[in-house]
Amino acid sequence: MSKAKVTAIGIIILLALSCLIMYYVETSFNGYLVKSLWKLGAFALLPLIYSCFDRNVAIKDFFNFVSKKQIIISLSLGAAVYAFIFCGYLAFANFIDLDNIAELLSENVNINRDNFIFVALYISFINSLLEEFFFRGFGFLSLRKVLPPVLAYIISALAFSLYHVAILTGWFRPWMFILIISGLFVVGLFFNWLNKKSNNIYNSWLVHMFANFGINTVGFIMFGII
Questions:
Q1: What is the pLDDT of residues 55-93, one digit of tens each?
Q2: What is the spatial distance between Cα 74 and Cα 201, in angstroms, rounded to a whole number?
Q3: Euclidean distance between CA atoms 146 and 77, whole angstroms
Q4: Distances from the Cα of 13 to the Cαs of 138, 193, 213, in angstroms?
Q5: Which of 35, 50, 118, 217 is 20 to 30 A removed from 7 (C-alpha atoms)?
Q6: How much is the pLDDT for 132?
Q7: Rounded to an integer, what distance in angstroms lies between the CA atom of residue 211 and that of residue 137?
Q8: Which helix (H) or strand (E) is 83 found in, with range?
């Protein structure tokens, strides 16, 4: 078996394993801190350990800086995504039970009005980086070195969308849940495309960050902070 095939199999197994670990964590533990520590291990530590044994996975390459123009374009795109998400919330507000979501967050991860600002900051800046490192860096940029680009796109985006299943279960009506998970798959494809030319994760990280800003703005409304 060629080294490229070994790398592809290794990355796919680790993508699946880490997502399964997080599914178990999301459905078995309470507390956002506990879940975040598990996520740090599954999405950062395991890929870092794997990269020590596979030279086809170069972690430092995920952070190669290209140009200021890249950052400016990504920031502009991120602002547009923020506006799209918030406008989407306004359009579908009547179909979203914010009280139910707030109750689930309080019961499952101990997120409430008192700590939401701190959680929102973590989600926007740190959690977005962690997911981009795992799904777009390890899952896409590394895979496209050893697989046809189409497969790298699909595998990474599929892992990204399925990872959110356990998190979002019970939040929305069934039709909206399916729509959101399908939308996350498309978002995963889009984020991969953003990183294709630059060959780093800055583009998708910045856009992801602004997407989280949009979601957290809804969270501020949900908890009555704004």
A1: 889 999 999 887 888 889 899 999 999 999 999 999 988
A2: 11
A3: 29
A4: 12, 23, 32
A5: 35
A6: 97
A7: 18
A8: helix 68-92
